[in-house]
Write a structure and sequence with these properties.
Strand content: 15-25%
Shape: globular
Number of helices: 8
Low-confidence stretches: none
Strand order of the largest sheet: 2-1-3-4
Mean pLDDT: 91
Largest sheet: 4 strands, parallel
Helix content: 25-40%
Radius of gyration: 20 Å
Order of helices and strands: EHEHEHEHHEEEHEEEHEEH
Structural class: alpha/beta
Distance between the termini: 24 Å
């Protein structure tokens, strides 16, 4: 049994995120070794000469090129967590559609071409009481990837800014008033860690309801190591607004590393057992 961990590409871990992402991967590796699972950590470039000898690959890669390459490895028999196809489904151009189809109460969201936005007045209803313009691919990696807009003029200016940055697609998502809550999770109840990332009014909410909503969303995307954001209304209603694959788990690294390592090892053994059982039939 040999595990291979792959660091996230630097372009998708800017600034302090680069060190935070590296730390959680190293801690997961240490936890795996304590569980008796030999492992090695590598960049994607280094992993190209290593992956065929690995029994399981755990990857933080996020960019489209890296995920496409990992998907090819998977076709050749590699076991990869998170699954690169599931990681791709967390891109907003897929996320919004998938979660709305599953009737998980996801906010009204519209896709738009920033290069050819057309008549923006058609979004007037969606923009009451305001909206968020978000890049349509990966989750936010820098300031300006998610912008609040409260008028059509602000929307037009933000669309032009997106174009200047090379962001050709965007999602316009209706604002939901309330407290923002972030959470970190590992599927199957192994970890669920919600917290308020900034000053809030502290609207009370049912943590178990939030966890259940997050688990249903993760199941819909088929992702096991994830984080996300939700809005708690003054009445305690919960709205999931984002879900991303393999975050840094910065506020709960120790607990997360142990839970992730356990998930990786248990998933590997479950797959091996299923293959053995299938072979005996």
């Amino acid at each position: 049994m040999k595990f291979l961990g792959i660091y996230r590409e630097p372009a998708y871990s800017p600034g302090r995120h680069l060190s935070n992402d590296a730390v959680i991967l190293r801690l997961v590796g240490q936890a795996l070794e304590r569980y008796g699972a030999p492992m090695q950590l590598a960049t994607l470039e280094e992993a190209r000469s290593l992956w065929k000898t690995a029994d399981l690959i755990f990857s933080m890669c996020q960019g489209p090129d890296a995920l496409a390459e990992l998907a090819e490895w998977k076709k050749q028999g590699a076991l990869i967590l998170n699954d690169p196809e599931a990681s791709r489904r967390t891109y907003r151009d897929s996320l919004c559609s998938t979660l709305r189809e599953k009737d998980l109460g996801f906010p009204h969201s519209e896709f738009l071409s920033t290069e050819h936005p057309g008549d923006l007045s058609r979004y007037q209803t969606l923009m009451t009481p305001g909206a968020w313009l978000k890049r349509a691919d990966v989750h936010a990696t820098q300031a300006g990837d998610v912008v609040k807009v409260q008028s059509l003029d602000e929307l037009a200016k933000s669309v032009k800014t997106f174009v200047s940055r090379g962001l050709k697609q965007a999602v316009l998502q209706q604002h939901r008033p309330g407290d923002e809550v972030k959470f970190y999770a590992v599927r199957g109840g192994r970890l669920f860690w919600p917290y308020y990332p900034k000053e809030s009014k502290g609207h009370p909410f049912d943590e178990h309801t939030l966890e259940s909503l997050a688990e249903h969303a993760a199941k819909a995307l088929d992702i096991g190591i994830y984080g996300g954001d939700a809005i708690i209304s003054p009445e305690g209603d919960i709205t999931l607004i984002d879900l991303n694959d393999w975050p840094s788990f910065a506020p709960c690294r120790g607990a997360a590393a142990s839970a992730i390592a356990k998930y990786l090892k248990e998933t590997y053994h479950a797959l091996q057992n299923s293959r053995t059982t299938a072979g005996l039939r």
